[in-house]
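Hi support team,

I'm filing this because I wasn't sure whether my run with s-citryldethia Coenzyme A finished correctly. The job status page said complete, but I'd like someone to confirm that the output block is well-formed before I use it downstream. Pasting the exact inputs I used:
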Amino acid sequence: KLGIFTYDPGFTSTCSTKSAITYIDGDEGVLLYRGYPVEQLAEKSSFIEVCYLTLHGELPSATQLAEFDQSIRRHTMLNESLRKFFDGFNYDAHPMAMMTGVVGSLSAFYHDTTNNKDPKHREIFAHRMIAKIPTIAAAVYKKTVGQPFVYPKNDLDYSSNLLRMMFAVPAEEYEINPVAAKALDVLFILHADHEQNASTSTVRMAGSTGTNPYAAISSGIAALWGPSHGGANEAVLEMLNEIGDVKHVPAFMQKVKDKVEGVRLMGFGHRVYKNFDPRAKIIREQCHKVLKALGKENDPKMELALKLEEIALNDDYFKQRKLYPNVDFYSGIIYEALGIPVNMFTPMFAVGRTVGWCAHWNEMTADSTTRIARPRQVYTGAAVRDYTPVAQR
Ligand code: SDX
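And here is everything the job wrote out:
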Protein backbone atom coordinates (compact mmCIF):
# COMPACT_ATOMS: atom_id res chain seq x y z
CA LYS A 1 0.00 0.00 0.00
CA LEU A 2 1.25 3.53 -0.79
CA GLY A 3 -0.81 5.30 1.84
CA ILE A 4 -4.03 6.76 0.36
CA PHE A 5 -3.30 5.15 -3.04
CA THR A 6 -3.65 1.41 -3.35
CA TYR A 7 -0.98 0.63 -5.89
CA ASP A 8 -2.31 -2.08 -8.16
CA PRO A 9 0.68 -3.70 -9.94
CA GLY A 10 -1.75 -4.96 -12.53
CA PHE A 11 -2.73 -1.39 -13.50
CA THR A 12 -1.90 -0.76 -17.13
CA SER A 13 -2.90 2.14 -19.31
CA THR A 14 -4.78 0.60 -22.21
CA CYS A 15 -4.24 3.40 -24.70
CA SER A 16 -5.00 1.28 -27.73
CA THR A 17 -5.58 3.81 -30.49
CA LYS A 18 -7.69 2.70 -33.45
CA SER A 19 -6.76 3.99 -36.90
CA ALA A 20 -7.41 3.01 -40.52
CA ILE A 21 -4.64 5.09 -42.07
CA THR A 22 -1.36 3.14 -41.87
CA TYR A 23 -0.47 -0.47 -41.16
CA ILE A 24 3.02 -1.56 -40.05
CA ASP A 25 4.30 -5.11 -39.52
CA GLY A 26 7.58 -4.49 -37.72
CA ASP A 27 8.75 -8.10 -37.89
CA GLU A 28 8.06 -8.48 -41.61
CA GLY A 29 9.10 -4.93 -42.56
CA VAL A 30 5.69 -4.12 -44.06
CA LEU A 31 4.31 -0.56 -44.42
CA LEU A 32 0.91 0.11 -46.03
CA TYR A 33 -0.84 3.47 -46.50
CA ARG A 34 -4.60 2.75 -46.64
CA GLY A 35 -3.71 -0.79 -47.71
CA TYR A 36 -1.27 0.14 -50.49
CA PRO A 37 2.38 -1.00 -50.07
CA VAL A 38 4.66 2.00 -49.69
CA GLU A 39 7.01 0.46 -52.27
CA GLN A 40 4.30 0.67 -54.97
CA LEU A 41 3.31 4.21 -54.00
CA ALA A 42 6.95 5.37 -54.05
CA GLU A 43 7.42 3.85 -57.51
CA LYS A 44 4.10 4.68 -59.19
CA SER A 45 2.37 7.53 -57.35
CA SER A 46 3.07 11.20 -56.59
CA PHE A 47 3.16 12.90 -53.22
CA ILE A 48 0.02 14.91 -53.98
CA GLU A 49 -1.83 11.71 -54.90
CA VAL A 50 -0.55 10.05 -51.69
CA CYS A 51 -1.81 13.08 -49.76
CA TYR A 52 -5.28 12.53 -51.22
CA LEU A 53 -5.11 8.81 -50.42
CA THR A 54 -3.89 9.43 -46.85
CA LEU A 55 -6.63 11.98 -46.17
CA HIS A 56 -9.55 10.32 -47.97
CA GLY A 57 -8.73 6.61 -47.78
CA GLU A 58 -8.98 5.89 -51.52
CA LEU A 59 -6.87 6.67 -54.59
CA PRO A 60 -8.46 9.63 -56.43
CA SER A 61 -10.01 9.60 -59.90
CA ALA A 62 -8.31 11.86 -62.45
CA THR A 63 -10.91 14.58 -61.74
CA GLN A 64 -10.59 14.25 -57.95
CA LEU A 65 -6.80 14.43 -58.21
CA ALA A 66 -6.90 17.51 -60.44
CA GLU A 67 -9.31 19.30 -58.11
CA PHE A 68 -7.30 18.35 -55.01
CA ASP A 69 -4.02 19.43 -56.64
CA GLN A 70 -5.57 22.75 -57.66
CA SER A 71 -6.89 23.35 -54.15
CA ILE A 72 -3.47 22.70 -52.64
CA ARG A 73 -1.76 25.02 -55.14
CA ARG A 74 -4.19 27.81 -54.31
CA HIS A 75 -3.45 27.63 -50.59
CA THR A 76 0.35 27.85 -50.83
CA MET A 77 0.72 31.56 -49.99
CA LEU A 78 1.18 32.82 -46.43
CA ASN A 79 -0.59 35.76 -44.84
CA GLU A 80 1.77 38.69 -45.38
CA SER A 81 1.62 39.49 -41.65
CA LEU A 82 3.26 36.11 -40.97
CA ARG A 83 6.47 37.46 -42.48
CA LYS A 84 6.82 39.74 -39.46
CA PHE A 85 7.24 36.65 -37.29
CA PHE A 86 10.49 35.93 -39.08
CA ASP A 87 11.82 39.41 -38.23
CA GLY A 88 11.85 38.31 -34.59
CA PHE A 89 14.20 35.36 -35.20
CA ASN A 90 17.97 35.62 -35.44
CA TYR A 91 19.40 34.23 -38.71
CA ASP A 92 21.02 31.41 -36.67
CA ALA A 93 17.79 30.24 -35.00
CA HIS A 94 17.37 26.48 -35.54
CA PRO A 95 14.94 25.96 -38.43
CA MET A 96 12.82 23.63 -36.29
CA ALA A 97 12.45 26.36 -33.67
CA MET A 98 11.09 28.64 -36.40
CA MET A 99 8.86 25.91 -37.86
CA THR A 100 7.32 25.20 -34.45
CA GLY A 101 6.71 28.89 -33.78
CA VAL A 102 5.38 29.91 -37.16
CA VAL A 103 3.05 26.90 -37.55
CA GLY A 104 1.70 27.49 -34.04
CA SER A 105 1.01 31.11 -35.01
CA LEU A 106 -1.30 29.99 -37.85
CA SER A 107 -3.88 29.57 -35.08
CA ALA A 108 -3.90 33.36 -34.79
CA PHE A 109 -4.68 33.89 -38.47
CA TYR A 110 -7.25 31.28 -39.37
CA HIS A 111 -10.54 31.40 -37.48
CA ASP A 112 -12.54 29.66 -40.21
CA THR A 113 -11.39 26.17 -39.21
CA THR A 114 -11.97 26.19 -35.48
CA ASN A 115 -15.06 23.98 -35.48
CA ASN A 116 -13.34 20.58 -35.33
CA LYS A 117 -16.70 18.83 -35.73
CA ASP A 118 -17.41 20.46 -39.11
CA PRO A 119 -16.12 18.26 -42.00
CA LYS A 120 -15.68 21.34 -44.19
CA HIS A 121 -13.53 23.01 -41.52
CA ARG A 122 -11.43 19.84 -41.25
CA GLU A 123 -10.96 19.69 -45.03
CA ILE A 124 -9.97 23.36 -45.33
CA PHE A 125 -7.50 22.96 -42.44
CA ALA A 126 -5.84 19.92 -44.05
CA HIS A 127 -5.55 21.52 -47.50
CA ARG A 128 -4.21 24.73 -45.99
CA MET A 129 -1.66 22.93 -43.77
CA ILE A 130 -0.38 20.64 -46.55
CA ALA A 131 -0.13 23.61 -48.94
CA LYS A 132 1.58 26.04 -46.59
CA ILE A 133 4.14 23.84 -44.85
CA PRO A 134 6.56 23.93 -47.84
CA THR A 135 6.20 27.72 -48.08
CA ILE A 136 6.97 27.99 -44.36
CA ALA A 137 9.93 25.58 -44.65
CA ALA A 138 11.34 27.58 -47.57
CA ALA A 139 10.87 30.86 -45.68
CA VAL A 140 12.67 29.35 -42.67
CA TYR A 141 15.57 28.40 -44.93
CA LYS A 142 15.68 31.86 -46.52
CA LYS A 143 15.81 33.40 -43.02
CA THR A 144 18.89 31.30 -42.18
CA VAL A 145 20.71 32.40 -45.35
CA GLY A 146 19.61 36.03 -45.24
CA GLN A 147 17.92 35.97 -48.63
CA PRO A 148 14.51 37.39 -49.56
CA PHE A 149 11.54 35.04 -49.36
CA VAL A 150 10.34 33.62 -52.67
CA TYR A 151 6.61 33.38 -53.37
CA PRO A 152 5.13 30.04 -54.50
CA LYS A 153 4.21 29.62 -58.18
CA ASN A 154 0.93 27.80 -58.85
CA ASP A 155 2.11 26.39 -62.17
CA LEU A 156 4.71 24.22 -60.41
CA ASP A 157 4.18 20.83 -58.81
CA TYR A 158 4.54 20.47 -55.05
CA SER A 159 8.21 19.50 -54.81
CA SER A 160 9.39 21.76 -57.65
CA ASN A 161 7.66 24.69 -55.93
CA LEU A 162 9.50 23.97 -52.69
CA LEU A 163 12.90 23.73 -54.40
CA ARG A 164 12.31 26.99 -56.23
CA MET A 165 11.13 28.80 -53.07
CA MET A 166 14.27 27.61 -51.31
CA PHE A 167 16.90 28.22 -53.97
CA ALA A 168 15.63 30.91 -56.37
CA VAL A 169 17.11 34.40 -55.88
CA PRO A 170 16.08 37.72 -57.48
CA ALA A 171 19.49 38.04 -59.09
CA GLU A 172 19.08 35.06 -61.41
CA GLU A 173 16.54 32.52 -62.65
CA TYR A 174 16.46 29.12 -60.93
CA GLU A 175 16.29 26.05 -63.12
CA ILE A 176 14.45 23.19 -61.43
CA ASN A 177 16.23 19.86 -61.78
CA PRO A 178 13.51 17.24 -62.45
CA VAL A 179 15.67 14.54 -60.83
CA ALA A 180 15.86 16.58 -57.65
CA ALA A 181 12.11 17.29 -57.68
CA LYS A 182 11.29 13.62 -58.22
CA ALA A 183 13.66 12.52 -55.45
CA LEU A 184 12.05 14.99 -53.04
CA ASP A 185 8.60 13.77 -54.05
CA VAL A 186 9.56 10.16 -53.29
CA LEU A 187 11.05 11.18 -49.94
CA PHE A 188 7.82 13.00 -49.03
CA ILE A 189 5.81 9.88 -49.95
CA LEU A 190 8.04 7.78 -47.68
CA HIS A 191 7.66 10.24 -44.79
CA ALA A 192 3.92 10.84 -45.21
CA ASP A 193 2.70 8.73 -42.30
CA HIS A 194 3.87 6.08 -39.90
CA GLU A 195 1.05 5.03 -37.57
CA GLN A 196 1.39 6.13 -33.91
CA ASN A 197 4.97 7.47 -33.94
CA ALA A 198 5.89 9.98 -31.25
CA SER A 199 5.01 13.12 -33.22
CA THR A 200 1.72 11.77 -34.56
CA SER A 201 0.75 10.59 -31.09
CA THR A 202 1.58 14.10 -29.84
CA VAL A 203 -0.73 15.63 -32.45
CA ARG A 204 -3.50 13.22 -31.45
CA MET A 205 -2.93 13.86 -27.74
CA ALA A 206 -3.07 17.64 -28.22
CA GLY A 207 -5.98 17.37 -30.65
CA SER A 208 -8.00 15.21 -28.22
CA THR A 209 -8.40 18.28 -25.99
CA GLY A 210 -10.24 20.07 -28.81
CA THR A 211 -7.46 22.59 -29.35
CA ASN A 212 -6.96 24.51 -32.59
CA PRO A 213 -5.61 22.12 -35.31
CA TYR A 214 -2.63 24.36 -36.14
CA ALA A 215 -1.57 24.33 -32.48
CA ALA A 216 -1.79 20.51 -32.53
CA ILE A 217 0.41 20.31 -35.65
CA SER A 218 2.91 22.67 -34.01
CA SER A 219 3.17 20.26 -31.06
CA GLY A 220 3.89 17.44 -33.54
CA ILE A 221 6.71 19.48 -35.10
CA ALA A 222 8.20 20.03 -31.65
CA ALA A 223 8.14 16.27 -30.95
CA LEU A 224 9.62 15.44 -34.37
CA TRP A 225 12.62 17.69 -33.66
CA GLY A 226 14.15 15.22 -31.18
CA PRO A 227 17.26 13.25 -32.34
CA SER A 228 15.55 9.97 -31.41
CA HIS A 229 12.80 10.79 -33.88
CA GLY A 230 12.84 13.10 -36.89
CA GLY A 231 16.01 14.84 -35.75
CA ALA A 232 17.88 11.60 -36.51
CA ASN A 233 18.38 12.48 -40.20
CA GLU A 234 20.39 15.53 -39.13
CA ALA A 235 22.24 13.42 -36.52
CA VAL A 236 23.16 10.80 -39.18
CA LEU A 237 24.99 13.40 -41.31
CA GLU A 238 26.73 14.78 -38.22
CA MET A 239 27.78 11.21 -37.38
CA LEU A 240 29.09 10.58 -40.93
CA ASN A 241 30.99 13.89 -40.80
CA GLU A 242 32.46 12.91 -37.41
CA ILE A 243 33.58 9.46 -38.62
CA GLY A 244 35.03 11.10 -41.70
CA ASP A 245 36.67 8.11 -43.34
CA VAL A 246 35.92 4.40 -43.74
CA LYS A 247 39.13 3.57 -41.89
CA HIS A 248 37.68 5.12 -38.72
CA VAL A 249 34.53 2.94 -38.83
CA PRO A 250 35.84 0.06 -36.65
CA ALA A 251 36.85 2.46 -33.85
CA PHE A 252 33.48 4.20 -34.05
CA MET A 253 31.58 0.93 -33.97
CA GLN A 254 33.56 -0.11 -30.88
CA LYS A 255 32.44 3.09 -29.12
CA VAL A 256 28.85 2.25 -30.01
CA LYS A 257 29.17 -1.26 -28.63
CA ASP A 258 30.94 0.01 -25.51
CA LYS A 259 27.90 2.32 -25.12
CA VAL A 260 30.12 5.36 -24.82
CA GLU A 261 27.80 8.12 -23.56
CA GLY A 262 25.80 9.63 -26.37
CA VAL A 263 27.31 7.42 -29.11
CA ARG A 264 24.72 5.55 -31.09
CA LEU A 265 24.60 4.42 -34.70
CA MET A 266 22.15 7.11 -35.75
CA GLY A 267 19.70 6.08 -38.45
CA PHE A 268 19.70 2.54 -37.08
CA GLY A 269 17.12 0.86 -34.88
CA HIS A 270 13.39 1.38 -34.48
CA ARG A 271 10.71 0.93 -31.83
CA VAL A 272 8.60 -1.11 -34.23
CA TYR A 273 10.74 -2.43 -37.10
CA LYS A 274 12.81 -5.37 -35.91
CA ASN A 275 13.56 -6.03 -39.57
CA PHE A 276 14.57 -3.69 -42.39
CA ASP A 277 12.54 -0.45 -42.46
CA PRO A 278 11.06 -0.78 -45.98
CA ARG A 279 11.55 2.94 -46.49
CA ALA A 280 15.31 2.65 -45.90
CA LYS A 281 15.68 0.23 -48.83
CA ILE A 282 13.80 2.55 -51.18
CA ILE A 283 15.77 5.61 -50.04
CA ARG A 284 19.06 3.74 -50.49
CA GLU A 285 18.05 2.98 -54.11
CA GLN A 286 16.96 6.59 -54.58
CA CYS A 287 20.36 7.68 -53.25
CA HIS A 288 22.18 5.76 -55.97
CA LYS A 289 19.85 7.18 -58.66
CA VAL A 290 20.08 10.80 -57.48
CA LEU A 291 23.84 10.77 -56.90
CA LYS A 292 24.41 9.24 -60.35
CA ALA A 293 22.05 11.73 -62.03
CA LEU A 294 23.78 14.62 -60.29
CA GLY A 295 27.24 13.31 -61.17
CA LYS A 296 28.01 12.62 -57.50
CA GLU A 297 28.05 8.81 -57.62
CA ASN A 298 31.36 8.79 -55.75
CA ASP A 299 29.96 10.79 -52.84
CA PRO A 300 32.26 9.77 -49.94
CA LYS A 301 29.35 9.97 -47.47
CA MET A 302 27.40 7.39 -49.50
CA GLU A 303 30.44 5.13 -49.56
CA LEU A 304 30.82 5.53 -45.79
CA ALA A 305 27.09 4.87 -45.15
CA LEU A 306 27.15 1.71 -47.26
CA LYS A 307 30.25 0.49 -45.34
CA LEU A 308 28.59 1.23 -41.97
CA GLU A 309 25.49 -0.69 -43.06
CA GLU A 310 27.55 -3.64 -44.30
CA ILE A 311 29.54 -3.86 -41.05
CA ALA A 312 26.49 -3.42 -38.80
CA LEU A 313 24.42 -6.04 -40.64
CA ASN A 314 27.21 -8.58 -40.12
CA ASP A 315 27.96 -7.71 -36.50
CA ASP A 316 26.39 -9.82 -33.74
CA TYR A 317 25.90 -6.76 -31.49
CA PHE A 318 23.48 -5.25 -33.99
CA LYS A 319 21.99 -8.52 -35.18
CA GLN A 320 21.15 -9.62 -31.64
CA ARG A 321 19.41 -6.28 -31.03
CA LYS A 322 17.64 -6.41 -34.42
CA LEU A 323 19.09 -3.04 -35.40
CA TYR A 324 18.61 -2.21 -39.08
CA PRO A 325 18.77 1.04 -41.07
CA ASN A 326 15.63 3.16 -40.66
CA VAL A 327 14.09 5.93 -42.74
CA ASP A 328 16.64 8.45 -41.50
CA PHE A 329 19.83 6.60 -42.40
CA TYR A 330 20.11 7.50 -46.10
CA SER A 331 17.64 10.39 -46.46
CA GLY A 332 20.15 13.03 -45.39
CA ILE A 333 22.57 11.98 -48.13
CA ILE A 334 19.92 12.77 -50.72
CA TYR A 335 18.98 16.07 -49.10
CA GLU A 336 22.64 17.12 -49.03
CA ALA A 337 23.08 16.11 -52.70
CA LEU A 338 20.09 18.36 -53.52
CA GLY A 339 21.86 21.27 -51.82
CA ILE A 340 19.66 21.19 -48.71
CA PRO A 341 21.75 22.00 -45.61
CA VAL A 342 21.83 19.62 -42.62
CA ASN A 343 19.82 21.93 -40.37
CA MET A 344 16.95 21.77 -42.87
CA PHE A 345 16.71 17.96 -42.93
CA THR A 346 14.17 17.70 -40.13
CA PRO A 347 12.01 20.49 -41.59
CA MET A 348 11.94 18.35 -44.77
CA PHE A 349 10.74 15.42 -42.66
CA ALA A 350 8.02 17.73 -41.24
CA VAL A 351 6.92 18.73 -44.77
CA GLY A 352 6.36 15.08 -45.69
CA ARG A 353 4.76 14.10 -42.36
CA THR A 354 2.29 17.00 -42.21
CA VAL A 355 -0.27 15.09 -44.30
CA GLY A 356 -0.09 12.18 -41.86
CA TRP A 357 -0.58 14.47 -38.88
CA CYS A 358 -3.58 16.09 -40.60
CA ALA A 359 -5.10 12.72 -41.53
CA HIS A 360 -4.78 11.45 -37.95
CA TRP A 361 -6.14 14.71 -36.55
CA ASN A 362 -9.12 14.51 -38.93
CA GLU A 363 -9.71 10.82 -38.16
CA MET A 364 -9.68 11.51 -34.44
CA THR A 365 -11.84 14.65 -34.48
CA ALA A 366 -14.38 13.02 -36.82
CA ASP A 367 -14.78 10.14 -34.36
CA SER A 368 -17.63 11.07 -32.00
CA THR A 369 -16.35 8.58 -29.43
CA THR A 370 -12.99 10.39 -29.08
CA ARG A 371 -12.35 11.45 -25.49
CA ILE A 372 -9.51 13.53 -24.10
CA ALA A 373 -6.31 11.48 -23.89
CA ARG A 374 -5.43 10.95 -20.25
CA PRO A 375 -2.60 8.38 -19.69
CA ARG A 376 -2.20 7.24 -16.09
CA GLN A 377 1.07 6.38 -14.25
CA VAL A 378 2.63 3.98 -11.79
CA TYR A 379 3.19 6.15 -8.68
CA THR A 380 6.72 5.73 -7.26
CA GLY A 381 6.82 8.73 -4.90
CA ALA A 382 6.60 9.12 -1.10
CA ALA A 383 3.73 7.59 0.90
CA VAL A 384 1.25 10.07 2.43
CA ARG A 385 2.76 12.09 5.31
CA ASP A 386 1.97 15.15 7.49
CA TYR A 387 3.41 18.64 7.00
CA THR A 388 6.19 19.58 9.46
CA PRO A 389 6.88 23.23 10.43
CA VAL A 390 10.22 24.54 9.16
CA ALA A 391 11.53 24.80 12.76
CA GLN A 392 11.28 21.00 12.98
CA ARG A 393 13.08 20.20 9.67
C1 SDX B 1 11.99 7.70 -36.66
O1 SDX B 1 8.17 5.59 -34.39
C2 SDX B 1 8.33 5.83 -35.63
O2 SDX B 1 7.59 5.30 -36.46
C3 SDX B 1 9.40 6.83 -35.95
C4 SDX B 1 9.72 7.01 -37.43
C5 SDX B 1 8.57 7.64 -38.17
O3 SDX B 1 8.47 7.46 -39.39
O4 SDX B 1 7.83 8.43 -37.53
O5 SDX B 1 10.01 5.76 -38.02
C6 SDX B 1 10.92 7.94 -37.64
O6 SDX B 1 12.01 8.34 -35.64
C7 SDX B 1 13.00 6.62 -36.93
C8 SDX B 1 14.02 6.43 -35.74
C9 SDX B 1 15.08 7.52 -35.88
N1 SDX B 1 16.00 7.51 -34.72
C10 SDX B 1 17.27 7.12 -34.83
O7 SDX B 1 17.77 6.65 -35.85
C11 SDX B 1 18.10 7.34 -33.57
C12 SDX B 1 18.97 6.09 -33.31
N2 SDX B 1 18.06 5.01 -32.94
C13 SDX B 1 17.89 4.77 -31.52
O8 SDX B 1 18.01 5.84 -30.66
C14 SDX B 1 16.79 3.77 -31.22
O9 SDX B 1 16.98 2.72 -32.08
C15 SDX B 1 15.34 4.20 -31.29
C16 SDX B 1 15.08 5.38 -30.43
C17 SDX B 1 14.94 4.49 -32.69
C18 SDX B 1 14.51 3.01 -30.82
O10 SDX B 1 14.78 2.85 -29.50
P1 SDX B 1 14.29 1.53 -28.72
O11 SDX B 1 13.47 0.62 -29.54
O12 SDX B 1 13.74 2.02 -27.43
O13 SDX B 1 15.58 0.77 -28.56
P2 SDX B 1 16.26 0.67 -27.21
O14 SDX B 1 16.71 2.02 -26.81
O15 SDX B 1 15.37 -0.11 -26.30
O16 SDX B 1 17.52 -0.23 -27.60
C19 SDX B 1 17.48 -1.63 -27.53
C20 SDX B 1 18.95 -1.98 -27.54
C21 SDX B 1 19.73 -1.22 -26.49
O17 SDX B 1 20.87 -2.01 -26.17
P3 SDX B 1 20.80 -2.94 -24.80
O18 SDX B 1 20.39 -2.01 -23.66
O19 SDX B 1 19.77 -4.01 -25.10
O20 SDX B 1 22.20 -3.47 -24.64
O21 SDX B 1 19.53 -1.58 -28.81
C22 SDX B 1 20.49 -0.57 -28.56
C23 SDX B 1 20.23 -0.01 -27.19
O22 SDX B 1 21.43 0.50 -26.65
N3 SDX B 1 20.29 0.42 -29.63
C24 SDX B 1 21.26 0.98 -30.32
C25 SDX B 1 20.63 1.80 -31.25
N4 SDX B 1 19.31 1.73 -31.10
C26 SDX B 1 19.09 0.88 -30.09
N5 SDX B 1 22.60 0.84 -30.22
C27 SDX B 1 23.31 1.57 -31.10
N6 SDX B 1 22.79 2.38 -32.03
C28 SDX B 1 21.45 2.53 -32.13
N7 SDX B 1 20.94 3.34 -33.04
